[in-house]
Amino acid sequence: MMMVGGMAFGIAFAMRLLVMNDVTIDQKFSELSMVPHDTYWVYAVAAAIAAMGFATIFNVQKRLLWVVAAGGVIAVCTRNFVNFELGYGPVIGSFMGSFVVSLIAVKAVHWFHVPNHVLTIPSVIPMVPGVLMYRSLLALINMRGVVGEVTLAFSNGINSALIIFCIALGVAVPNIFARRYIAKDRQRFLTQMLAERRARGKFIEW
Q: Is residue 123 domain-resident?
């Protein structure tokens, strides 16, 4: 959260200083629409590039870049579908996107022999609500005493915090339940092996 907040503040401050045609960049940025205006394949390509970019920052192996890219595509497309097609909003949409990716990663970790977070974290980072965070910071920076400025700033900040929380929750929940299931399965397998050894007479009780 501190890293994301620092990045958001730096970009917001830089945009506030830049001026193009007597119009500040932050004014243009505040006009960006949150509703997707392109087809799904455009957002899929953007999500794949972003996921692979963050994966390289985290030193993910080259052989796994395409896996992370696929995870980013699944996460963003699921988020957009739940958010805009089903109408459940960005918070639930982000939760479902990260949940689906984490659920798939529970099985994929056995195929690629890597920890769960190596596949899930870079895949869900493209869903971080940068636009809402920037708007919240820009609203705080540009306060002029107008009625509703504080409400707008805190509304964007709270929504972005909820989305980040739901992304983390969606990644964690399948992993937690999968570990519990695997632990029970391993214990059941160990009990069965011990029973078979006792039956064969090759087990020594101490």
A: yes
Q: Is residue 14 part of a domain?
A: yes
At 88-116, the pLDDT tens digits run 888 999 999 999 999 899 888 888 888 88
Q: Does the global pTM surpass 0.85?
A: no
3-state secondary structure of 171: helix
One-letter amino acid for residue 195 of the chain: A
Residue type at 103? L
- For residue 205, tell me if it sits in a domain: no
The total of structural domains in the chain comes to 1
Distance from the Cα of residue 41 to its chain's centroid: 19
Length of the chain (residues): 206
Query: Cα separation of 132 and 182, whole Å?
Result: 38
- Distance CA(12)–CA(17), nearest Å, equals 9
Is there a domain that residue 183 lies in? yes
